[in-house]
Design a protein that fits this description.
By secondary structure, this protein is α/β, with parallel strands linked by helices. About 30% of the residues lie in helices and about 25% in strands. The protein has helices at about 15-20, 35-45, 55-60, 75-85, 100-115, 130-140, 175-180, 180-190, 275-285, 290-305, 315-330, and strands at about 5-10, 25-35, 50-55, 65-70, 90-95, 120, 145-155, 195-205, 215-220, 225-230, 235-245, 250, 265-270, 335. Strands 13-12-11-7-10-9-8-14 form an eight-stranded mixed beta sheet. A six-stranded parallel beta sheet has the order 3-2-1-4-5-6, with helices on both faces. Helix 8 (about 180-190) crosses helix 11. It starts with a strand and ends in a 22-residue tail after the last strand. The protein binds nicotinamide-adenine-dinucleotide (NAD). Nicotinamide-adenine-dinucleotide binds near residues 10, 76 and 94.
């Protein structure tokens, strides 16, 4: 079935639009909505037939719209998602889904109450690298996860923060943990399952902003695996890396910052005699759509009754919960255990005070 989709927000929404236009057998674009009429029109004009609008209310009240795709700044996600769910639309929402577990749980309750659909955006999951890892795991060759290291070493300067909501607690609600490393942390939990405990150190060392731009994090996973995550926006270039040591195999991702899974990954069997079995599992992986193309295909499949590969609202909660735990640990200086429920002092949101490196 071909579904009508309206994209709201013409920043990263431009990439969403390009992806759904490539998937024209699954999606028909209703419109691109942006309050900045000139920006919306300029992006829409790149795709013949795509209409630009500034009227979000008209999208919500138009019964021909099946899906509303929220690509607005983070502080607007919750209200926009709620309104779209109330209007009976299937909803896609950019990361971070919301800046608090209370809001995320309210969205989950709304999805249940309305029988609706909400898929948060984590497009890094899609691509051959992740498909290879799944194939090796499915073949029973990975074994228990032991340790992992994650790197989000990117370069962001003053120009990046010209957009007023960025780098502020009020507009962005967090820094590199919430805005950048959230992707690699989603990859980690989608492969290794939930985090059980977090120890976090954060600092603002690169740019003159309120939110953190450097972090050293340690996670104990529910499986017992131990993982570290190093984050900075002060690297010379943009590079991401995930290296996971399982009992049977060591996996290293590609380093492409925005499409970590787009290229094949490296899989090294611990027992050299098993390398041929690992290679055989890898050879079963065919062409795999990457990034937003993979994400929108998975969402269309889910809406067509074949769920399984789309990002779920529970995945979105897990990512907000991890951010909550990281901010709680960094500010208290103590490890924080998950899961986090309504009794936690940060359940309704973490504090908005600037965090400064005092070293
Ligand atoms: N998944 C990714 O890799 C990725 C990459 C970049 C940004 N993002 C996320 O996407 C979201 C948007 O980021 P961005 O960089 O595109 O921001 P942006 O500020 O460049 O674009 C947001 C657009 O929303 C418009 N807008 C604001 N309020 C509106 C409203 N009420 N109705 C209609 N339009 C409105 C603005 O005019 C602006 O053009 C953020 O949550 C960000 O974290 C995700």
């Amino acid at each position: 079935m071909r579904r009508s989709i309206a994209i709201v927000g013409a920043g990263i929404g431009a990439e969403h639009l390009a992806a759904v236009c490539r998937l024209s057998d699954r999606y028909a674009v209703h419109s691109l909505c942006d309050l900045d009429a000139a920006r919306g029109a300029a992006v829409a004009a790149k795709h013949p037939g795509v209409k630009a609008t500034t009227d979000f209310d008209a999208i919500l009240s138009d019964p021909s719209v099946d899906i509303v795709d929220i690509c607005l700044p983070p502080h607007l996600h919750f209200d926009a998602c709620m309104r779209a769910l109330d209007a009976g639309k299937a909803v896609i929402c950019e990361k971070p889904l919301t800046p608090s577990l209370a809001e995320t749980d309210a969205l989950i309750a709304k999805v249940r109450e309305t029988g609706g659909f909400l898929s948060p955006v984590f497009q890094y999951r899609y691509g051959i690298g992740m498909a290879q890892l799944r194939a090796v795991q499915d073949a029973g060759l990975a074994g228990r996860p032991l340790v992992g290291t994650l790197e989000t070493h990117w370069n962001r300067g003053a120009g990046y923060y010209d957009i007023p909501w960025r780098g502020t607690w009020a507009g962005e609600r967090g820094g590199a943990v919430l805005g950048h490393a959230i992707h690699i942390h989603d990859l980690l939990t989608s492969v290794l399952g939930p985090v059980a405990q977090v120890s976090a150190m954060l600092a603002t060392r690169v740019n003159d902003i309120e939110t953190e731009d450097c972090a050293a994090l340690a996670f104990r996973m529910e499986t017992g695996a131990l993982v570290t995550s190093s984050i900075t926006l002060g690297a010379a270039d943009d590079s991401s890396r995930m290296r996971l040591c399982f009992e049977g195999v060591t996996v290293e991702s590609d380093h492409a910052p925005y499409s970590l899974a787009a290229k094949p990954w490296t899989f090294t069997a611990r027992a050299p005699r098993l390398q041929s079995e690992v290679d055989e599992a890898l050879s079963t992986v065919g062409e795999t759509p990457t990034g937003y193309d993979g994400m929108f295909a998975a969402i269309a499949d889910a809406l067509d009754g074949s769920p399984g590969r789309q990002v779920t609202i529970e995945d979105g909660r897990r990512s907000v919960e991890l951010v909550t735990a990281i901010y709680a640990s960094a500010r208290s200086g103590a490890p924080v255990s998950l899961p986090i429920g309504p009794e936690h002092p940060y359940y309704a949101g973490w504090p908005s005070e600037p965090l400064r490196d005092t070293a």
